[in-house]
Design brief:
The structure holds 2 protein chains of 2 kinds.
Chain A: H1 2-24, E1 25-38, E2 44-50, E3 52-59, E4 63-74, H2 77-83, E5 87-94, E6 97-104, E7 116-126, E8 130-143, E9 148-172, E10 175-190, E11 193-208, E12 211-227, E13 230-235, E14 243-249, E15 253-256, E16 261-263, E17 266-269, E18 277-283, E19 287-291
Parallel strand pairs in A: 2-6, 2-8, 3-7, 3-8, 8-9, 9-10, 10-11, 11-12, 12-13, 12-18, 13-19, 14-18, 15-19
Antiparallel strand pairs in A: 1-4, 4-7, 5-6, 14-17, 15-16
Chain B: H1 2-20, H2 25-69, E1 77-83, H3 93-107, H4 116-142, H5 146-171
The chains are: A mainly beta, B mainly alpha.
């Protein structure tokens, strides 16, 4: 009798354990489509995405490959598979424009999503192709491109790596990182962070309620107009290579070049009229310039 | 009877064949060696040289045909498991209280509510309200995952920060 009770207890325990396990894990259903396009130098790739993880890599081939993975998660595997169909996308090539967009469509207006849905897009594109990306709620990663790149993101984590040419970044509530970029960089940030490493060329931008932290060298111009944003620039050039006009209100300017000078609201310095100009304005926040060399 | 005669005749014929074909051992080996000399090189070339190349060519052709026949678009469904994200309940009662205080104060037509800095913050707060409505709609479509929850937390924090700044301006 005792043995029987023991075995019943073990079976019940296993079922209970399985039930607990099934509540704690999500079944992940995914569906992947792949497509290839021939691409000319004058073609543009335009992406209009939401709830998407986008990864774009430039390469030296003359065609584009795109891999679209729709992902649905729910405790119940059948629901996860069913809700995969709520994720839809449109991919086409018309003339010089290749467009990708994704959207949500449930079979009924009254049928609400029970699980978690997301889409993952991996693209390999000729590195001379112009790329325009719009994304909301997700991530965007771009590397090895050398033409025109534009990103407009809302609540997106962005990483741009080993690119050159013309870069335009608009970010609202985003986290942005740029590593190894050379060219012209224009940005507009709101409630966003921007971190750069090894960036050079012409930089101009606006930041509201965020933080800009740059490691730069060989700049031809740097202009930042910001509100309530902390600005920190670390330069790998001689401090005297540039002329400066730094201004903040209700905070301080810190110059860290071994001397650690602090200025109250404004600092203007012209070393040579032919030098590139660094102009930074902000409010309620500090400006810090770090240069490795003494004057 | 006829059948017996027939069988006996057949046995005799068979015995005569054996008698006619008497092989010496030497002849037999010579014959085998001759055959080996004739056939071996051909088999060797076939097995060691032609067959591997034929197999490689066949494999190459198969790969070529496979890549030609493979469709541009294909689909696969796979089921895996992932840990569930704990849902965070937002507590923004204090922010709502702060907003109510701002509304009450500005109803009394405080001059400070007309200041450019205050108006700029107020516009920012309205923008966050619009953004939250958009986010909640997105959450109903795509679910409340870590990306959505992070966005909601950021909005709540921004709202709290702006509300606090506006209260500071009113109280200053």
């Amino acid at each position: 009798m005792k043995r029987k009770l023991k075995s019943v207890f073990v079976v019940v325990f296993i079922f209970a354990l399985a039930d607990v396990y099934s509540q704690e894990v999500l079944r992940v259903a995914s569906k992947t489509d792949q497509k290839t396009f021939k691409v000319n130098d004058s073609d543009t790739l335009k992406i209009d995405a939401e709830k998407a993880h986008i990864e774009i890599e430039g390469w030296d081939q003359n065609y584009l490959t795109i891999s679209i993975t729709r992902i649905s998660k729910h405790q119940n595997g059948e629901i996860a598979v069913e809700e995969l169909d709520y994720l839809n996308y449109d991919l086409q090539k018309k003339g010089n424009l290749i467009t990708f967009s994704n959207y949500f469509r449930s079979p009924s207006e009254f049928k609400k999503t029970k699980g978690l849905l997301t889409i993952s897009v991996a693209i390999k594109v000729p590195n001379k192709t112009a790329v325009i990306i719009q994304n909301r709620f997700g991530s965007s990663s771009v590397s090895y491109l050398s033409n025109y790149l534009s990103l407009t993101n809302r609540f997106v984590e962005t990483k741009i790596e080993k690119c050159n040419g013309e870069l335009k970044l608009t970010s609202f509530f985003g986290s942005n990182e740029i590593v190894n970029f050379k060219g012209s960089f224009l940005f507009e940030l709101e409630r966003s962070d921007l971190r750069t490493k090894n960036i050079s060329g012409m930089i101009s931008g606006v930041s509201r309620f965020g933080k800009v932290s740059m490691v730069a060298s060989e700049l031809s111009e740097l202009t930042i107009n910001s509100q309530n944003s902390e600005i920190e620039i670390e330069m790998h050039d001689q401090k005297s290579r540039y002329n400066y006009h730094l201004k903040t209100s209700f905070n301080k300017i810190f110059l860290k070049d071994g001397t650690d000078d602090t200025y109250k609201n404004e600092w203007i310095k012209s070393y040579d009229p032919s030098n590139p100009q660094i102009t930074i304005n902000t409010t309620y926040s500090p400006i810090t310039i770090i240069s490795k060399n003494h004057e | 009877m006829k059948r017996d005669n027939h069988l006996q005749r057949k046995f005799r014929d068979a015995d005569s064949i054996v008698e006619q074909t008497t092989w010496s051992k030497e002849d037999l080996w010579n014959s085998i060696e001759r055959n080996l000399d004739n056939k071996s090189p051909r088999n060797h070339i076939l097995r060691k040289r032609i067959l591997p190349w034929a197999a490689i060519i066949l494999l190459g052709l198969s790969a070529l045909f496979y890549s030609e026949l493979k469709p541009d678009t294909y689909e696969s469904i796979e089921i895996t498991v992932a840990p569930q994200i704990e849902q965070i309940l937002m507590e923004n009662a204090q922010t709502q209280e702060g907003k109510a205080f701002i509304d009450e104060s500005c109803k009394k037509q405080l001059k400070v509510c007309e200041s450019p800095n205050f108006l700029s913050l107020s516009t920012h707060l309205d923008k966050i309200d619009t953004e939250r409505a958009s986010l909640l709609e997105m959450m109903s479509r795509y679910g409340k995952d870590d990306v959505m929850m992070k966005a909601l937390i950021e909005l709540e924090n921004a709202e709290a920060e702006i509300t606090s700044k506006m209260i500071k301006i009113i109280l200053s």
